[in-house]
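Hey, I'm writing a tutorial for new members on how sequence and structure tokens pair up, and I'd like a real worked example in the thread rather than a made-up one. If someone can provide the structure for the chain below, I'll link this post from the tutorial.
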Amino acid sequence: MAETFGPLLEVARIQSEINRLFDNLLDLGGEGRAQGGWIPNADIIEAEKSLLVNVDLPGVEPGDLEVVVNGSNLIIRGVKKPPEPGTRGNYQLAERSYGSFRRVIHLGVPVNTRLAEAVLADGLLRINFPRVPNRRGEDVPIWVKTA
């Protein structure tokens, strides 16, 4: 019986990954770079008891940031405001990005979203999720009683 579910679970995982890739491509055409926005870089570190997500958000204020979990996706959105203009002049080089952003990160392992902790400091958003045991795919005994 477990052999039947294995391939089906793998197909569902691949479908989820394809959906995530298309979501990110749509972001590029909507809220992403094409509209003057940007997409922050992220790292995901998987440890035995936690999942740590680090996202580069230099210049983003906590009040301009929204972090939510929807299903198994972490959604980070907000706005990075451009600095107030100091002296008037023409740019010689402009590499920093400003404007709205949205980043969807698939959480590939079971985590406790209710106990997650997020800290924004020095341009780095650190979100720590406690991991929970993965109950899918493991044998669950059912005790048989006599009538």
